[in-house]
Amino acid sequence: MKAKDLKPHIGIFGRRNIGKSSLINALIGQEVAIVSNEPGTTTDPVKKSIEIFGIGPVVITDTAGVDDEGKLGALRVDKSFGVIPNIDFAILLIADNEFSYYELKIINELDTYDTPYVILHGKSDQSKLKPATKRKIRSITKSKILEFSIYEEALLKHLIDVLIEKMPKTAYTQKSLLKGIIKAKDLVLLITPIDSEAPEGRMILPQVMALRDVLDNDALCMIVKETELQDFLDLGVKPAIAITDSQVFAKVSKIIPDDVMLTSFSIMLARFRGNFEKYIEGTPQIDQLKDGDKILMLESCTHQVSCEDIGRFKLPKWIKEHTGKNLHFDFAAGLSHFPAAVEDYALIIQCGGCVVTQKQLNNRLKPAIKKQVAVTNYGMAIAYVTGIFDRVVEPFVKK
What is the value of pTM for the model shown? Predict the structure, then answer.
């Protein structure tokens, strides 16, 4: 997962050879997508970043035609529909007044994930939208219906205006991580272990996000490793809150005074981006685990694995030690499909989700929540088995 994927996502859907790639090129103003009269030219979802004034940077995804045929075609269609849980807005492109099974299937999937969309009747220079087609569409959806042609600049401008109007503001306006928790001139202590999992020469994204948020809230920031934590406290300076990497909770919680708020980067992100209430509700399921239960570890990014990996090694080990049970752990990285049916799991543990959007993370967990499978996140699970769960969620629960 790349940093660009944190931008709002727009997906373009429709049948083969209907003009999706031409639309992409028109929006971007460059020939970035291959255009051909041959159906099925686009075989896999293709992403391109652009700037839309009024929204900012966005990622536009071109998808394969949803009417593709054959075994390979079915795989392409699956990939196209697999884009929907990960986008913030959709453009459903139709042409020649065709609106039937394929379009209804797309709309049903968009509605499943509460994804707003606009219907674009393309190639309008060749064939205008008929009143009968419009009535048919209106019987299904109240979403906007626009005429479009790549040869008419006014229609392109109107489409962009609609994108600005209809794109959910939550997709591109950032909430504060710590607003309401800290105030101006407060001292925030960030505790950042450096181990083999730490990137060479830089901080990990949640630490950078926290640092920037402290500055945005006009507060003061001190950053130390856990090995220098006591040295800092010995200076007699008292922070308003300490935010640590979850994996050193056991050590840090014994050093940070009880009258100083304590939490972790992962829990901070859970409140900011995840389903915080469901995490709070699901975490105690750890004590209900039985021999043979399956637990799914969800990693939002893909990375090389080492023996110090928190999700692959440390956390599963701590949970086994805490429960004393023989448990089976599955792992899913990025936004890949679950290894098994969601209801097969007794617990799903999501990472902080620093490299995915709020929509992507919540849609990733939606099938589990719908099936009433308990969900939590790395930081909360570590806090629970460490015995400090109430303390580290308290800064956010009381707000």
Answer: 0.75
